[in-house]
Write a structure and sequence with these properties.
Distance between the termini of chain B: 19 Å
Strand order of the largest sheet of chain A: 3-2-1-4-5-9-6
Largest interface: A-B, 27 and 25 residues
Largest sheet of chain B: 3 strands, parallel
Number of helices of chain A: 9
Distance between the termini of chain A: 44 Å
Protein name (chain A): S-adenosyl-l-methionine--l-methionine S-methyltransferase
Structural class of chain B: alpha/beta
Number of strands of chain B: 3
Largest sheet of chain A: 7 strands, mixed
Strand content of chain B: 15-25%
Strand content of chain A: 15-25%
Helix content of chain B: 25-40%
InterPro entries (chain A): SAM-dependent_MTases_sf (IPR029063)
Radius of gyration of chain B: 11 Å
Shape of chain A: globular
Oligomer: heterodimer
Shape of chain B: globular
Number of domains of chain B: 1
Amino acid sequence: MFSVFEPEASSSGEPYVLTPEAPSFAFDPTDPWTETFQRGLEAANLSGKRIYEVGIGTGTNAAFLLQLCDAALVSGSDLDPRLIELAERNVRSLAPDKIDQFHPIKGAVSLIDTDAARAQIAQTDVVIGCLPQVGDPGDKRLSAFREAQAVELADGADEQADDHIAHYYPWEAFDSYPFNSVGLGLNEALLQRLREHAPKAEVIMNFGCRVGTGIIFELFEANGFRPEKLHSQIVRQDAGTDISFFVMLEKALTGTGLEKDFVCKFFKDAEGKQPISACEAQKLIDEDPETPLFHEVAVIRGIPAAS
Amino acid sequence: MKRSNANTIDCNGLSPAPTVLRIKQALTGRARDAHPLDILLDPACDTSSLARSLGKLADRVRLVARPA
C-alpha cells in the first residue's frame, strides 16, 4: 500500500511531495501529526546537524530532514525491525542523492537500548521522536486503575491494530518514571537516557497535548532540559484512539481538591476555541461516536539546561 | 532509578495533581494492610496539603519531603 503525502509548500517556498511506502503496520505518514512535526523540524534550523530519530517509522521524517532541512546526517531506529528496512527503502526512493547520509540502526531497538544505537547517539546533535503518550488499554495495572475509577474502555479499544505500538506503550513497564502517571513515562525514559548517553544533544519531540503543555514543560524541566515550543496546531482526535486513559486521570482526582489543577485539553472545534475536558469529550462520544473532537499537537525542543 | 525498591515511589518533578495520581495508581491493587508506601515528594510539594488531598489514603503512605 502506498500513501501520498502532499502538504503545502514549505516555508522556503520549495514544494515537497513525499510518497512513502506505508504498510498498515507503520504510523500513517499522512496523519496531521506528521505534518505538525515536520513544520516544527523546519522551524528548528537543522541545517548541518547530525540527527537521530527514535521511532523512525516509514522514514518520511528522515527523508524530509535530508532533502529539505539540509541535515548533515540522519540516523534512527525503531522497535519494529520491519520499519527500519522500510525506512531505508523510502529514504532511498525519496532522497536518493542523500542516501549516503542516512545511517539506520538495524534490528529491534527499544528507545536507544542497544550498543549500536547508543554509539550513534553519542555522535548526534539533535534527537527527535514522537513516542506514544497513552498507556496500552490491555495493560493489567492500568486496567485495574481504570476499573477503580469506574471508567469503561471504549468498544474495540482492546483490539490491536497493526500499528498498535505506534499509538500505545506498555504502561507498567515504565512505571519507575514519575511522569508515567500522566502517560509520559516512555518520553521521560528517553529524556533520561539522553542525559546519560548524549548530554549535549538537543531533543525535539512531537506531543499530543491532551494533558496540557504545562505538564509537558514540567517533564522537560524535571529531566534537565529547557523547553520551548517550536510549532503547534490543532488536529482531530484519532477516532481509533481510546480516550478513557485521560478520563480516568480526571476522575481519579475527584474529591481531592485538585480537580481544577489537572484538566485534560480537548476542543469541540478545529480552531481550538472551545476547550472541553476529557470527561466532557467522552460524554459527547458516548452520545454520538462520530462526534469530531480536537486537541493540540505541539513540537517541543528541549535544550540541555547545563549547556 | 525512580522506584528504588518495591516500597518507594519517586514523584520528583511532579506537581500535586500528578503526584496524587501517581500515589493512587501505586496503591491500586496493593493490600490495604501492606506496609505504608514511601513517597518521595518533589521539594515544591507541600506535605500537609497533599495529605489532605489524599484523605484516607494518606494512612497507607509515608510522605517524604525531598530536600530542595
